[in-house]
Amino acid sequence: MQFKSTRAPDTLVSFKNAILNCLPANGGLYVPDAVLDMRQYILYMDPGTSYPELVATVAPALLQGELNPVSAARVAESTFDFEPQLTQLDDTLSVLTLCNGPTGVFKDYGIAFLAAVMEELLGIDGRAMILSAARGDTGVSIAHAFSGRRDMTSVIIYPSGPVRGLDPASYVTNGGNVIPIQIRGTFDDCQRLILEALNDRPFAERYGITSGNAINPGRLLPQVFYYFYAFIKLKKILTGELVFSVPTGNFGNLIAGLYAWKMGMPVNGFIAAMNANNAFGDYIMGKEFKPGKLIQTNSPALDVSLPSNYERLASFYMEAPAVMRHMVYPDAIDDRATLAAMEEAWTRYGILLDPHSAVAFAAARRLSQTAGFSGHVVVLATGHPAKHAELVSRVTGQQVAIPAAFIRLWKKTDPVATISPQLDALEGAIASCC
Ligand SMILES: *Cc1c(COP(=O)(O)O)cnc(C)c1O
Q1: Residue 412 pairs with which residues in a beta bridge?
Q2: Is the beta carbon of 301 within 6 A of some atom in ligand 1?
Q3: Average pLDDT, stretch 35-55?
């Protein structure tokens, strides 16, 4: 499978090039070019297939000529010591749990695979420096995934504020390969700096710079695998429609679902479950998109006014707008409905959901109770309830057990350097470490 920029559909690059040089020269974002038909795998795979086994089977089929089955098995084994879990709640509803990775967020799946596949594809004489803007636990997920990998250095750029959860033993200053750098500025400044560093071609080439953020298509691709996994587990019981309800902020997860569909997974639709920041729903319904003012909610990972994957989503809509309007249903769940869903999930089904997953649960329940709908909705549980323990506990009356790994996530650590938000300062800090 080759990749093309959303702005230059005629220039194709390999997967390796797309992940190691993830900013197309003419702007835009990399997306798969021709999507391969995976039905021969998805329709017939044994429901008992383990997750690493599924990845080791599907990845080489998708990345023919780049990742052979032996390499793919090595990548899958070194990535997935955690697995998604599908829990059927009743005839109408299942939950796909994606929050059992090292930081309790579904993003662990894409990040861990990116690091492993990059190491595999770099081969023996390649090297790479991965620049990532991070807030919250994403930095920990990235540090964890890249730590100790051969010929790779992970530079993690933080905005002002406390830096938490990193293991100082993994820092370059202690013989590791992680360089946390804090800038005196905002998260937007971090993202701007990374784009500037990628665009400083001599500098980028000297160090082999790419990004570990969601612009890297190597994070998008592995998110397709867990949709396949859910389908394979459910296919025997499906009698009507199949819909996935996806808590949606930057639309990365939803777009991965759309690729799973394009690859032949039988699915009838996706709910783009947004919180009060739902201006993008207009675009999905075929209207003009006007970004709204950012509203703070109790599902903060969904507080996005202009999704960073806008160009990727637009490329689907440009191809087939009439189809897309029947494939993606936007819904908006406000804070009150989110808490009500969290409570309902507990009292009706005995499951604890974090607020992001509760947004998707609320939208799923709304659809499954609609007259005329006879199908099965899979709710993506993207965040771990223990990371919102106080809220979950207040709403459900339950004590939420906190895994020991999460306690480490809250421990403050010092970055290797603190700099002003300028490219020369960033490049100077990197040069002094390497
Ligand atoms: C990032 C995140 C989301 C949103 O995913 P997108 O791919 O940005 O739409 C949902 N839930 C949780 C817990 C997240 O961390």
Answers
A1: 164
A2: yes
A3: 95
pLDDT value at residue 313: 92
β-pairing verdict for 30-32 and 3-5: antiparallel
End-to-end Cα separation, the chain, in angstroms? 34
Question: Is the Cβ atom of 277 under 6 angstroms away from ligand 1?
Answer: no
Q: Over the stretch 163-217, which tens digit does the pLDDT of each residue have?
A: 999 999 999 999 999 999 999 999 999 999 999 999 999 999 999 999 999 999 9
* Cα–Cα dist 228/427, whole Å: 41
Q: Burial level of 350, CB count in 10 A (0-12/13-18/19+)?
A: exposed
Q: What is Dmax (Cα atoms) for the chain?
A: 64
pTM over the 0.85 mark:
yes
Sheet with 152-158, edge to edge strand ranges: 209-211, 128-133, 152-158, 178-183, 417-419
Quote the pLDDT of residue 171: 97
Regarding the beta carbon of 60 and ligand 1, being less than 6 Å apart is answered no
Residue 427 has pLDDT above 90, yes or no: yes
* Atom of ligand 1 at shortest range from CA of 304: 8
Probe ligand 1: pick from 246, 302, 312, max atoms within 8 Å of CB?
302
pLDDT band at 283 (very low <50, low <70, confident <90, very high): confident
Residue of 95, 106, 215, 384 best suited for mutating to test ligand 1, as the one with most atoms within 8 Å of CB: 106
Q: Who contacts 245 (Cβ-Cβ below 8 Å, separation ≥6)?
A: 270, 271, 273, 360, 361, 363, 364, 367, 377, 378, 379, 380
**What are 64's two structure tokens?**
């023919």
Asked whether 273 lines ligand 1 (CB < 6 A), one says no
Nearest residue to 262 via CA among 33, 19, 9: 33
> Contact 42/231 with Cβ under 8 angstroms?
yes
Is the pLDDT higher at 306 or at 55?
55
Residue 259, number of CB atoms within 10 A of its CB: 21
User: How many C-alpha atoms does 150 have within 13 Å on its Cβ side?
Assistant: 9
Average pLDDT over residues 334-348: 98
- Å from CA of 284 to ligand 1 middle: 18
- pLDDT tens for residues 107-116? 999 999 999 9
Whether residue 315 has its Cβ less than 6 Å from ligand 1: no
Calculate mean pLDDT across residues 119-134.
Answer: 94
DSSP string, 84-139: -EEEE-SSSEEEEE---STTSBTHHHHHHHHHHHHHHHHTTT--EEEEEE--TTHH
